[in-house]
Design a protein that fits this description.
Helix content: 25-40%
CATH superfamily: Divalent-metal-dependent TIM barrel enzymes
Largest sheet: 8 strands, parallel, barrel
Strand order of the largest sheet: 1-2-3-4-7-8-9-12
CATH class: Alpha Beta
Order of helices and strands: HHEHEHEHEEEHEHEHEEEHEH
Oligomer: single chain
Shape: globular
Strand content: 15-25%
Radius of gyration: 19 Å
CATH topology: TIM Barrel
Length: 322
């Protein structure tokens, strides 16, 4: 059994509290009248003094990096470089866990455990994971979903009103993925606790838990404070407005990706775009994050058409509630 932590200690690790940053976001947040602090971040590859210096100069407070090949010892070296630059490596991208069948769960758990230890070496407090992908199945359009599910297990009984016969394969695949994901995350939660690194589950167009109440039910079904939610603001627009996800998840949100999505005029379909150019109501998103008590990182993902300085300026506006 690992060392037990109080709820207050857990929040200090996972919620952005206790960050070794001074004045990073306070000016923006205070002027906007928000109770919560948000910190500016980018996704990066290899950690280098030059890259971090450029990000720091542009106004960013930290970075999120990958854990696919890094080892804990390498992570500790990267952490030293970041600390010297006055930057924080706050999160690690583990990405997909390839659990396509029950036999693959063991390998996914071992991989996740290594990522958690690597994240601790970086000084990060979360590892982003996408548990499963359900593909190649007939499934409803985003606007057609009307899901009925078991609140305790997050297992789905239907995905649309009326006859669900043509969606049987999708429902079966989703329920299998839910069971396997829960098993893997429960098994890895002990290592997360020992490492003081949260497993942050993200939905990345993987056809799972596509509505806020279902996704929240899945996280609750894990029953561990070390398994929470990584909210990608743009990924969910086609299913429900981001503010609805935030209200539903509340304090289960431990990290945010800042991304935008432009819906078509009829609200059906669309595509990703630069932040503040899409359908996300950013002032409302900021208000809801404040109501949820989210003190933490806002990491830009995508927006490749913008310079680093422009990304920083747009993120400042989002943090300011504009």
């Amino acid at each position: 059994m690992g060392e037990k932590f109080t709820r207050r200690e857990f929040l200090a690790v996972s919620g952005g509290a206790g960050l070794a940053l001074t004045g990073a976001a306070s000016a923006v947040d205070a002027s906007a009248g928000f109770k919560t602090k948000l910190y500016k971040s980018l996704i990066t590859g290899k950690i280098s003094e030059k890259a971090l210096a450029q990000m720091k100069e542009a106004g960013f407070d930290g970075v999120e990096c990958g854990a696919w090949s890094a080892k804990p010892a390498d992570a500790e070296k990267a952490r030293a470089i970041a600390e010297k630059a006055g930057m924080k490596i706050h999160s690690v991208l583990r990405g997909w866990l390839g659990m396509n069948n029950p036999k693959s769960v063991d390998g996914s758990v071992k991989s996740l455990e290594v990522a958690l230890k690597t994240a601790a070496g970086y000084g990060a407090d979360a590892v982003l994971v996408v548990p499963c992908r359900v593909g190649g199945k007939g499934l409803p359009q985003p606007w057609e979903f009307d899901i009925a599910f078991d609140e305790k297990t997050a297992l789905v009984a239907r995905v649309v009103k009326g006859d669900n016969a043509k969606y049987k394969d999708y429902i079966d695949a989703q329920n299998l993925a839910t069971r396997m994901s829960r098993e893997a995350l429960l098994r890895a939660a002990g290592v997360a606790e020992k490492s003081k690194v949260v497993i942050a589950v993200e939905n990345v167009w993987n056809n799972l838990w596509v509505k806020p109440d279902l996704a929240a039910s899945f996280i609750r079904s894990i029953g561990s404070p070390w398994v929470q939610f990584y909210f990608d603001i743009g990924n969910h627009v086609k299913y429900a407005p981001p503010e609805e996800w935030i209200r539903t998840f509340g304090k289960m949100i431990v990290k945010c990706h800042v991304k935008d999505f432009k819906l078509k005029p009829d609200g059906h379909g669309g595509g990703f775009c630069n932040i503040r150019d899409g359908s996300v109501n950013w002032p409302l998103v900021r208000k809801e994050l404040d109501k949820a008590g989210y003190n933490g990182w806002m990491t830009i993902e995508g927006s490749g058409g913008l310079s680093m300085d422009e990304k920083s300026k747009r993120l400042d506006l989002i943090i300011a509630g504009k």
